[in-house]
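pipeline/complex-builder :: batch 7 item 3
reading input block
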Amino acid sequence: MSARTGLLRGLCLHHVSCSAKQLQQQQQQQQRRLLNHFISRDPKPAVNGQDAPSPPHFTLAVKDNIATTGATASSTTTCASPFLTSYRSPFEATIVTQLRARGAVVVGKTNLDEFGMGSHSVHSASGPVAQGPDNDQGQGQQVRASGDYGGEARSAGGSSGGSAVAVACGEADVALGTDTGGSVRLPAAYTGVVGFKPSYGMLSRHGVVPYANSLDTVGFLARSVGTIADLLVGAGGLWAEHDPKDPTSLSPAARARCASGREGYRSSLTAVLKGVRFGIPLEYNIEELDPRIRDVWSASAEALQQLGARIVPVSLPSTRHALAAYYVIAPAEASSNLAKYDGIRYGTREDHGGSAGGESESDVADGGVLYAASRGRGFGDEVKRRILLGSYTLSSEAMDNYFIKAQAVRRLVRRDFDRVFALANPLHEPEAFDLSDLPDSVAMENKFGPTEVDFLLCPTAPTLAPRLADVTAQQQSPVDSYMNDVFTVPASLAGLPTISIPVQVAPEAAESPGRETGPGAAGLQLIGQFWDDARLLAVAGAVARALSEPT
Amino acid sequence: MARISAAVLSKYLLSGELSCRGCLGARRVSFSSESASYSARQTRHFTARATPITGPAPVPALAFQSSNPSPVPLRQQLKAQARALKSSGEKRKKNADNQTVPGWELTVGIEIHAQLNTARKLFSPAAASFNDAPNTHVALFDVALPGSQPSFQSDALIPAVRAALALDCTVQPVSRFDRKHYFHWDQPAGYQITQYYEPFATDGRIVLYPRDGIAPQDGEAIEVGIKQVQMEQDTAKTTAQPGGVQWLDFNRVGMPLIEVITLPQIHYPATAAALVRKVQMLLNSVDACVSGMEAGGLRADINVSVRRSDDTTGPLGTRTEIKNLSSFKAVEDAIIAERDRQIALLESGGVVVGETRGWSLGGTETRRLRGKEGEVDYRYMPDPDLGPVVIDDQLVRHLKDWMGVLPDAEIDQLIGDYGLSSKDALSLILLDDGARVQYFYNVLDAIEARLGSNADHESLATSSGRSHALLVANWCLHELGKLTEVSADLGMTPEGECRVPSTDLAAILYHLHSRTITAKVAKELLWSVFRGEIATGAVTAVVEANGLWFKELPDEEYAALADQVIEGEEKVLGEFLRFQDGKSKAYPHGKLMFLVGRMLRSGPEQMMDPVSAERVMRARIAEVYIPALQAKK
């Protein structure tokens, strides 16, 4: 089969074959082409019964902002940017090497929003990603009638949309994504798969092209929580591996210290839901929340309560500032990280109509027009928007009012989380909290304060996957698009482990009756305290099982 | 005329580039060449080819305008200036007479960049190198490959902290790295990692003395505060090629630098130059720095402002910054020129604009590089990949304890213990990047080992006992200096050894000091050792073999020679009589030495000692000739 179906959009189909199997393959191929979830793809890995690599292999899709090496098609790392369309990294990301050692066979590089900036995987030099009606072909949990595919194609979420679709379609057992402000969890929620963002500093970012270094994490997408838990915790788990090449990778000593106060790293954990305390953040019940999601959220909470879990309302007062803080900090770091793409070494240089070299030289003296022209042409609109935003918030006149304030908010967001979690944050000294700061709606457990919780339970996104047409036709303003990150950003700012698990939404709540039933899945998010990843995965597995069983 | 290869010459003529790392080959030569218009370059290219290299190369007239930053060969530039001065009929004032302008107060602050002496780059394990083949020491992070990350090399802290201590700074327990953003092809990441918000060392000071070359107006000493010292990355080296092509050498990118920022407490141009010189000396003395300003390892930016001296309580005047000065003289010249420009501007009712200006070597005025509106906003941001630098107090204390003697203390020692003049002491310390003074100690140790049997240590420390030290100092400075005037250099190593082994010089000086050879023989021996004609350790054997030992004439023969010389010099003798009679106040020492000189020339030189000759001559005059003259009366 062709190796690069994802790339070759608009390709003429081969002449019609009479074989039914071939016909079916062609249909699948065409659908996948429409999904556009791969930027480059390896030929079918030569793995069969006889020479299966040991340890047991699994297929891995890699988001195209994570460096891979090799002679195959998937050895480019384009970040979906025109600057890097032919870029081949001379080194491989640590996480890919680590997974190869555990039996991963890379099937391709997945499509994304340019440099990871976007919420729908539409801002890509390789074109937008769509999720088709049939991406339950694997073990996906969506049940959906196939409809008018072209017009009704839904957003796969972003920025790891290609990775989510690859997993949903069953073309990869595991996909790597990157999560800066929700870029793994949002596509997981939209496409009905599991998306996991680990604690900041657990997985190496070496070889991951940075968007916002202080927020970037490598995340996993898979069809079940267990697949991810197998890779991350337990014997030979990735959680223990320090990477000296990544200065933000926690040292072995810090890992041991953080894990010493946690369960599930040294010995396996049998998750029981009985007695687990789930916090329901009151501030997450926003006006814009889709009623179907609000319903499934409260239904899930009730179901868990019936299984013996405690459901506790909690308050995270800084939540409402978190999104604004995120959209100051992330673009600021992005504007800095993307300064290297200047047309000198990456991309093509603008020569002003190809006039003599002398002219472009004088342009340089006139104030860097050489760079401005190259960058103006080389970046997509969303990236340009964030570079401008970031450059402004870092400028000497705006720094104090934006960047510094945003860092202060970031600290408050983290304090909010530290206050509600029963476990202490091992990276910070315990702080005293003033009860008078809490809203009245929070019930006190005793005179010392409200109940402390093990995990927070909230939706991953305020809406279901929107129509791609609505997203791309600019009916959504950039700010609307940023709104999708409102529930995912706080955990990113605090560096906390978070998982999005799929839950079914009521099919009868279709928005335009008789024509379309809408997406069948939403994401439910579980947030844990820092380095509580092992227990988070165990409990998320139990929650996913409990919620998928008919009550 | 020196023989220069055509390739070097054409590089120099066409792109103003020197092949060596000298002050003229300073970085950012690129700047001037990039803004030179293409056609001008073409013209020069053509004329240079068409003209015999020996003849004066014609250069387009516009190149002489100092506002034009085209690279013009220095000699031509200087000639043109001299011509311009001559035709305008005014003489350029000497800098020494140009330290002040009546009615105005000058204020200067300086930023000095110095390359740290480390084995690796600041954020990658690639080797720090100087003259290796281009682009051979480059790590992933150095060229900012996507997905690469910095890895702070903590080894850089040792020279950095030493530098901070030499500048009397407080070393901060926690400091951080920030990104400074601007676009230039010599900077692959689009930002430079530096320490803007929280530098690793703050609040230091440098004391400058007259011997450092400060302006006389500063008196006996002046203290200049150091605001901060920060670590940062160097940029890539740009080599301009003909036709607007720039070659980049990424060996230099990411090399560790420190930036030393002074407070605006300097008020005289000479003092500013002295400060830069002293910073270089201090950094060298603690082994923090790789090379000096002459070798391109040190660069300075200066901030200059003026205000009327009758109102010095108010705020400072608007300052301008002059970037990338690569010699001490350039620092002083640029300050004088910029001060005079600002004063002229203010006196004619104008306003000084805050802007960045440039200076070309040997120039007469600064030129505008970019104004306030064109000023880059560096958008400083804490680097999100790099954690804080935590410097343990123990490290600081350890480095302080093992730092050794700083130059000022050493100079005081040389003056106090060995009786050197402050000028000689300073020269000794500055020469060969501090190796000369080490050589001095080596020679001194060797000679004292030889003297040791005759004199105990205490007598060596007394003023009469230290005459050998003065002798050693004089030879290490002046006689050794004469060797290099003629032929190749001394080949001085940092350990204080050179082509004249310290033990051999000690042997020569031991014999000289103990008056067993004459000064003339000693000098000839030195030359022979320098030329390699005498094997190491064979000085004494050579003296023996060639019968060079000083066999002194008996006093009678000295006396006979004296008599011979005095013959017919009654007029000279009259001077001595006048002194004897109290008619003149001073002993006619000059006349005596005149006679001694004649005496030495008339006798067998290798058997005579000037000291003995003088002694005998003085005695003959006093005991024989004066009484004779008196008797004549």
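note: Residues 322-401 of chain A form one domain.
queue -> next item
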